[in-house]
Specification:
Largest sheet: 8 strands, parallel, barrel
CATH class of the largest domain: Alpha Beta
CATH architecture of the largest domain: Alpha-Beta Barrel
CATH superfamily of the largest domain: Glycosidases
CATH topology of the largest domain: TIM Barrel
Radius of gyration: 29 Å
Oligomer: single chain
Number of domains: 4
Helix content: 10-25%
């Protein structure tokens, strides 16, 4: 397609008005986006190319192109023919000016512009393009999606690097090959049997065959665990074992009971989640737990011992090795967050995630149910929360639904932009988690990240007013019409913070909390904590609010708007305390300066110590200066959950590759990152900063370390899967797995020997050896099992490493056990392509690709000469 400069194109066009009825369809338009240069002084330059592939001209006026983009473009960088408007959040519109000439069929228009920071990923492209036409009478057409959107290749250093100082290498086949050389295939007997690693595993003599005559016997209090095990074994044996209440064992019996368990030199008592699993050829299987949870985790270890082949097809008998496992978790809190506010996940996807969490002995599900872009839980008496706040699509007033975000497009029926859980759905999720010894911790994100609720309650107020008006019109309003305060959140929202000075805000929150309590009670599920968010409240909020001015004037303890977050937290924590609930939130809730971007040092606030507050500490970005914040808070008396971005944010990309989805603002997080975390001495993880520069351990010598009391205040760790890039269940699982297995290992297993080594080089060597063993376990047992477990998990298949040396193809993989196939004709490898089993002579274009046991392939890559 010839790209004509605008002056030449204008000269070729005929004069006169185009008929409003003759115009291209949205499907006639296509868009290509690409990064030009990341090394600009104020950010990066980029380019959109708009193609008209239809039979009619795109007119000079009367159209608006809408899209989402995660950067705030500089308006002055756009060509004069077009006007860019930031609507809100990541939502923009592009309109023609009087200088725009019609875009004729077959022609194209280059639109260059600049934006702050940089873009090095295909996933950072503008998304969700759609066009709306307006006729001479001002009537708008239905929105029409632009279906053909392409991303130009990232090839030059100025496209794939963030700046000239970016030292982080781009993941190439050659780089992966050299990194994978540290991984070697272990002997079968060396491959780990159970993830997470038990405290003690003593192998016995022989094996035990469990057949269809198997009985599951249990103490009376363990009927639920026995039924769970029977259902799990039924999928492997093709028949459900009998379940009997009994305390007698036997060679074809699995006995479940409660009792003390010796773990190492210590006898664990009730409530410790500890278990002892004994497999003996003559006596059968016995699982003793200090509590029902301990028995349940013993069941998971037994399931892990079953041959992987049994998960592919049913077996007449299951052969398990004779052994004794004595085990208990390192941390009582072993969590996983799923954000469904940004992009919705179905109930089915959530239930599967809970299943896998339980299999790997995670016990806290942090359910991020609300955010600016979506409210996902039905609340009694407030239907607008899901009718309006739970849907996204094209709108000019957001009275029926929210604007599109993250490329969700114009259709309110979008399966990722729209969706919510009914009361019945949520109760089912709670019960499902309860039966798997997982506590669901709901997050209702306030006072920031609350736009979905704010807009929903504005619609509610307008609907009530239209019905005649009453006191109910303002009873649940979260915004104040008379407040002209201006601010912008990190995600570029201009109206996403609730007004904490209005009585209606607290009536709303009380209604939400009361209904949550009712749903948990109906589900019979444990309810100890509500996560309130509390993060990223931007400066400038409430500064011109009449309600806040009045509250400050009449409240002696309030000196200004900077004191309002603390005021809000005291009120909401009092509300939760009435139900015996812990007030959880991100680290900001425990800091002296709670407003985002404040000048005050990030130091613990003494105000909420002892008030049943639980901060989740995320900020571990190397070089930002707050790497020791979690330890400061724990030492100050706060019980903390370590949720470190640099190791535990699963929405971050696995590697620096333009094709790899995910963010990278906090670094790159692959499967090894959660595995290598040293939770109680984070500085042993200091290796590279955000730009790939080596970190000197000595630079952190003066940072805060955990005291003995502080160590006791570390409740555990949690992985985070934020939802901006998790568009659908398959992408959610891709981002979460196999990272979740590294999280489980570090949350449950005892501190590894390598982590106790003080010398940096010796510690690195010990870690490399341990990681080699874990990689073998994943590739040869756990990933093949995940191909079938719970219907199959769509984990990320790592691209292989590959080089061509002396005319020979050399290839390897990060997880031994996955297969590699190759082609020599430029086509993408399939399961019918040659299997790579060792160095092979090659000529021409060589493509390589890794596959799982189902034949599902990862990304196909082209191998190059040594060093490329």
């Amino acid at each position: 397609m010839k790209l004509l400069p605008r002056l030449i194109l204008s000269a070729l066009l005929f004069t006169g008005c185009l008929s409003q009825e003759k115009r291209p369809l949205g499907s006639d338009l296509s868009i290509r986006w690409g990064v030009v240069d990341n090394f600009l002084e104020r950010g990066f330059s980029t380019e959109l190319v708009l193609f008209n592939r239809g039979a009619e001209a795109l007119p000079a006026s009367g159209w608006t192109l809408y899209f989402n983009f995660g950067r705030m473009p500089f308006p002055d960088s756009f060509p004069p023919e077009l006007k860019l408007t930031h609507i809100n959040g990541d939502f923009f519109k592009l309109e023609p000016t009087t200088a725009f000439a019609p875009l004729l069929p077959g022609d194209s228009l280059r639109i260059g512009f600049e934006a702050p920071n940089w873009a090095i990923k295909e996933g950072e492209a503008p998304a969700g393009f759609y066009i709306v036409f307006t006729d001479a009478e001002g009537l708008a057409s239905a929105p029409e999606a632009v279906a053909d959107v392409q991303v130009a290749p990232f090839v030059s250093p100025r496209q794939v690097n963030r700046s000239a100082s970016d030292r982080w290498p781009v993941a190439t086949p050659a780089l992966r090959y050299h990194e994978n050389r540290a991984i070697s295939m272990q002997a079968e007997e060396q491959v780990g049997l159970v993830v997470p690693t038990p405290v003690g595993l003593m192998k016995g003599q022989g094996t035990l065959d469990l057949g269809q005559t198997l009985e599951i016997r249990h103490a009376g209090t363990l009927a639920g665990e026995a039924a769970y095990l029977a259902d799990a074994l039924a999928e492997l044996l093709g028949a459900r074992p009998a379940v009997v209440e009994s305390t007698a064992g036997g060679p074809q019996a699995i006995l479940l009971k409660i009792g003390p368990v010796r773990v190492g030199a210590e006898v664990r008592q009730s409530g410790a989640e500890a278990y002892r699993l004994t497999v003996a050829p003559e006596q059968g299987v016995e699982i003793v737990g200090t509590d029902a949870a301990g028995v349940f985790y013993g069941i998971q270890s037994l399931r892990a011992l079953v041959p992987v082949a049994a998960y592919r097809e049913t077996q007449e008998r299951l052969t398990v090795p004779a052994l004794v496992i004595e085990d208990a978790p390192r941390f009582g809190y072993r969590g996983m967050l799923l954000d469904v506010g940004r992009n919705f996940q179905t109930k089915r996807a959530v239930l599967k995630l809970l299943d896998v969490m339980a299999f790997y002995k995670l016990n806290k599900f942090h359910f991020h149910l609300t955010d600016d872009e979506g409210w996902r839980l039905a609340i009694a008496g407030l239907p607008e929360l899901t009718e309006v706040g739970g849907r996204r699509g094209h709108t000019l007033d957001e009275r029926d639904h929210l604007v599109p975000s993250y490329g969700s497009g114009p259709n309110p029926a979008s399966p990722t932009g729209s969706g919510f859980y009914t009361r019945a759905d949520f109760i089912e999720i709670l019960q499902y988690a309860r039966d798997r010894h997982i506590e669901v911790i709901p997050e209702i994100d306030v006072p920031g990240h609350a736009r979905s609720a704010i807009k929903a309650m504005e619609t509610r107020s307008e609907r009530l007013a239209a019905q005649g008006g009453s006191e109910a019109v303002e009873s649940y309003l979260l915004s104040e019409a008379a407040d002209p305060s201006t601010y912008m959140s990190v995600q570029m929202w201009k109206d996403n913070v609730i007004n904490v000075c209005q009585p209606s805000t607290y009536r709303f929150l009380q209604a939400v909390v009361d209904d949550l309590v009712a749903m948990y009670r109906e589900a019979g599920a444990p309810f100890t904590t509500i996560h309130t968010g509390g993060d990223e409240v931007p400066g400038g909020v409430w500064e011109q609010s009449p309600a806040c001015a009045a509250l400050i004037a009449e409240t002696p303890d309030l000196e200004g708007t900077a004191d309002l977050p603390g005021y809000f937290l005291r009120r909401i924590s009092d509300m939760l305390a009435e139900h015996g609930l812990v007030t959880a939130g991100w680290e900001e809730i425990a800091l002296k300066e709670m407003l985002h971007g404040g000048d005050a040092a990030k130091e613990p606030s003494p105000d909420f110590v002892g008030r049943n507050f639980r901060p989740y500490v995320w900020n571990s970005v190397w070089g930002w200066g707050s790497e020791d914040l979690g330890y400061k808070l724990a030492n100050a008396g706060y019980p903390v959950v370590l949720s470190y971005v640099a190791n535990l944010y699963f929405d971050l990309a696995y590697e620096k590759d333009p094709a790899e989805p995910g963010y990278y603002w906090g670094g790159f997080v692959d499967t090894r990152k959660p595995y290598e975390l040293v939770p109680l001495d984070l500085f042993k993880n200091a290796a590279l900063d955000l730009m790939g520069n080596p970190l000197d351990e000595a630079a952190y010598a003066d940072r805060t370390r955990l005291t003995a009391a502080g160590r006791r205040n570390v409740l555990g760790i949690q992985g985070q899967l934020w939802g901006e890039n998790a568009k659908g269940q398959e992408m959610m699982e891709y981002l979460a797995f196999p990272k979740l297995l590294g999280l489980a290992e570090r949350a449950w297993a005892q501190e590894p020997t390598w982590a106790m080594v003080e010398n940096r080089e010796a510690r690195a060597a010990g870690l490399a050896m341990a990681w080699n063993g874990f990689a073998n376990t994943l590739g040869r047992r756990d990933l093949p099992r995940l191909d079938y477990l719970f219907g199959g998990v769509r984990y990320r298949i790592p691209p292989p490493g590959a080089i061509i040396k002396d005319g020979m193809l050399l290839a390897n993989i990060a997880f031994p056990g996955l297969t590699i196939r190759y082609t020599l004709d430029g086509t993408e490898p399939t399961t019918a392509s040659p299997l790579y089993e060792g160095p092979v002579p090659v000529k021409g274009v060589v493509n390589v690709r890794a596959f799982d046991t189902l034949g599902r392939g990862g990304r196909s890559l082209t191998a190059g000469p040594l060093g490329q």
